[in-house]
Amino acid sequence: NSRGTASLLKDSISFTDVSASGLFEGHDLLRRGFTSVKNELLPSHPLEQTEKNFQLNQDKTNFATLRNVQGIHAPLKLQMEFRAVKQVQRLPFLHSSNIAMDILRGNDECIGFEDILNDPSQSEAMGEPHMMMEHKLGLL
Fold first, then answer.
1. Is the distance from CB of 85 to CB of 100 less than 8 angstroms?
2. What is the Cα–Cα distance from 112 to 118, expressed in whole angstroms?
3. Same domain, yes or no, for 80 and 97?
4. With helix as H, strand as E and coil as C, how does the chain read?
5. 70-127, pLDDT tens digit by residue?
6. Is 2 inside any structural domain?
7. Per mean pLDDT, which range of 8-12, 22-26, 38-42, 121-125 is the poorest?
8. Where do transmembrane segments lie in this chain (predicted)?
9. Are residues 47 and 72 in the same domain?
10. Are residues 48 and 76 located together in one domain of the fold?
11. Do both 56 and 100 map to the same domain?
12. Is residue 13 part of a domain?
């Protein structure tokens, strides 16, 4: 067999499809809060959607400007660097500031809300390291 074991593993069913945290997982009230159909359909404020997509819109504008000024190679190189930086992560139980992403975006010299009061979604989570890693991998 010339395909090897790597291609066999790629063709097999992933653990998330059959595990408890996969396709048939119930709603986790402690992590996601109460559900409401109205909250899922409509934003609570007109600016909420704009604020959620602020960084994406800003990146698109910067890429368009960069393409007009320097050509197609500049935004492609920057997007490749973004993708490489996003792949490097610490373990889930260790706090990470992701300073490389801030440097690429030019936010390393800016002081924002998350620098002073810390974004709650990025807060350091205390817990059992093995349990947190298994949850991230979808084994729990």
1. yes
2. 9
3. no
4. CCCHHHHHHHHCCCHHHHCCCCCCCCCCHHHHCCCCHHHHHCCCCCCHHHHHCHHHHHHHHHHHHHHHHHCCHHHHHHHHHHHHHHHCCCCCCCCCCCHHHHHHHCCCCCCCHHHHCCCHHHCCCCCCHHHHHHHHHCCC
5. 999 999 999 999 999 988 888 777 767 788 988 988 888 888 777 777 665 656 656 7
6. no
7. 8-12
8. none
9. yes
10. yes
11. no
12. no
Query: Is residue 41 domain-shared with residue 58, that is, in the same domain?
Result: yes
In whole angstroms, give the CA distance from residue 58 to residue 10: 36
Give me the number of domains the chain comprises: 2
Among candidate residues 105, 95, 88, the one with its CA nearest the CA of residue 54 = 105
- Name the token pair of 133: 């890693």
Full domain range(s) for residue 98: 90-110+127-139
